[in-house]
């Protein structure tokens, strides 16, 4: 088993961050550690216990470069538009961090793409909610498992406008599998993370009526 940081469940829940600038690009990550984290993720709830998930793990440098290029083709126009709309300090920090990830994505040790069985285009809300409700708990558990072992990631989706091209690159059956995101995985530079600044919970609560 990969080394654990010994964090409590509460510490993992409160400090699992999106990690971009603090991904250690030079430190190797073993395949065994990735598998251990996915094994923990598979303990997450799944609709009807169907386990309709799969995981594409990419460490081939050439394929990572192509995936990063697809990501960048969507990312940079998106970032330009959103930078014009948001110029407060926090947004600028997030933008800088996201830019760094886009520039270095090909250097991250692993790209992990979780997939859900089936396509969801045009599906009714019930089917879409059931599908996402079966894969997203496992993906979040994967991120927390990474955190517990001193690794980090960020939940990215900007390669998905080119999902079909990435499927062709990796031999994924596009007609029968939906990619849920792209997760760059590396050890973190330092292991201390603080709870994020959030608005008061009371602002989001509704009791019995809106």
Element layout with pairings:
Elements: H1 9-15, H2 31-41, E1 53-58, H3 61-85, H4 89-104, E2 110-117, H5 125-148, E3 151-152, H6 163-170, E4 177-179, E5 183-187
Can you characterise this structure?
By secondary structure, the protein is an alpha+beta fold. It has helices spanning 9-15, 31-41, 61-85, 89-104, 125-148, 163-170, and strands at residues 53-58, 110-117, 151-152, 177-179, 183-187. Strands 1, 2, 3, 4 and 5 form a 5-stranded antiparallel sheet that branches.
SSE series? HHEHHEHEHEE
Q: Which CATH class is shown?
A: Alpha Beta
- Can you tell me the overall shape? globular
Note the total helix count.
Answer: 6
Q: Roughly what percent helix?
A: 40-55%
Task: Kindly state the number of beta strands.
Answer: 5
Fraction of residues in β-strands: 5-15%
In whole angstroms, how far apart are the ends?
A: 47 Å
Main features:
single chain, 210 residues, alpha+beta, NADH Oxidase, five-stranded antiparallel beta sheet, 6 helices
Explain briefly what this protein structure is.
With 210 residues, this protein is of the alpha+beta class. The chain contains six helices and five strands, in the order H-H-E-H-H-E-H-E-H-E-E.
